């Protein structure tokens, strides 16, 4: 896990991408990314994201859509 993470961070850095140490989820079986829960072989929407979408007001005008 440690060596794979270091290799990934090096690859991202060489290609001009920046990584926030504060947001790093190191050696976890499941990580949260952009409202999704990602684990080996699967991705699903987080409960918080589902709740937020369900609480949104429905669109009224064409522009709202």
From TrEMBL:
It comes from the Eukaryota. Gene3D superfamilies: 3.30.70.270. This is Uncharacterized protein. It comes from Pleurodeles waltl.
